[in-house]
Structures are given as C-alpha cells and as structure tokens.
Amino acid sequence: MGKITGGEQLVRALKAEGVETIFGLPGQAVFPAYDACLTESRVLITLDLDFSDIRLYPPASHKGIWVLRPHTQSIDSMLTLLKGALGVLGTEQTESRLWVVEPGQIRIRE
User: Fold this and answer.
1) Which of 2, 21, 22, 56 sits most deeply, having the most CB atoms within 10 A of its CB?
2) Confidence of residue 10 (pLDDT cuts 50, 70, 90)
3) pTM metric for this prediction
C-alpha cells in the first residue's frame, strides 16, 4: 500500500466525524459546491474568504459555513483547524451560522 497523502488524511479525518466532502480544484468556481451544500443541507467548509461576507451569504440562508484561516495552507495546518472546530460541535451549532476558524479561536456569527 502506498503512502497516505495529506489530502487523504484530511478526507479520513472528516469522514471519521461523519462529514461528507466536496473538493473544488484551484481555479474552479466554488459556487457549484455552495449550491450543492444548499441543495443537500450541508455545511460548506472553505478557504475562500468571500464566504465570510454575511451580506452576500446571510447565515439564515444556509446550514452553515466554516471559513478556515490557517497560518499556512498546509494539510497539517488545516487538519489542526478542522479538529479544533469538530471539537466545538458538541457545544455550538453550525446551522444558520458562519464560523471563522483560526488557530486558537473560532469566531461565530449569526
């Protein structure tokens, strides 16, 4: 069996928490993923800062958006942020909320 890539680690960590994943490729529009999340009542997890604009994406209009803000866009940084966010799921809801997930903190807007 070959070496597990960082992307595969990320997918496994998410699936272990019951998260389905949609990956967009650099240069592709993110909107199809956003539309799919709306249609399927899913939370969108993204690095795209445009989704942190609650005027364009009002929290009441979706099941939740997590905008990840890692110091670096390495797999390890993103895994750390995701694990921190997943740990908060027991006490905070995602529906109708924007989560901005940064190292050491999560800002939540309704």
Assistant:
1) 22
2) confident
3) 0.79
Are 95 and 27 within 8 A, CB to CB? no
| Nearest-angstrom CA–CA distance, 18 and 31 | 23
What sign has the CA pseudo-torsion 33, 36, 38, 42?
negative
Assign 95 to helix, strand or coil.
Answer: coil
Report d(CA 4, CA 58) in Å as an integer.
37
Q: Where are the alpha helices (DSSP H) in the chain?
A: 6-16, 31-39, 75-88
The residues with which 108 forms a beta bridge, in sequence order, are 99
pLDDT in tens, 50-103: 999 999 999 999 999 999 999 988 878 888 898 899 889 889 999 999 999 999
In 3-state terms, what secondary structure has residue 60? helix
Structural domain boundaries of the chain? 6-14+28-105
> Tell me, what DSSP letter sits at residue 40?
T
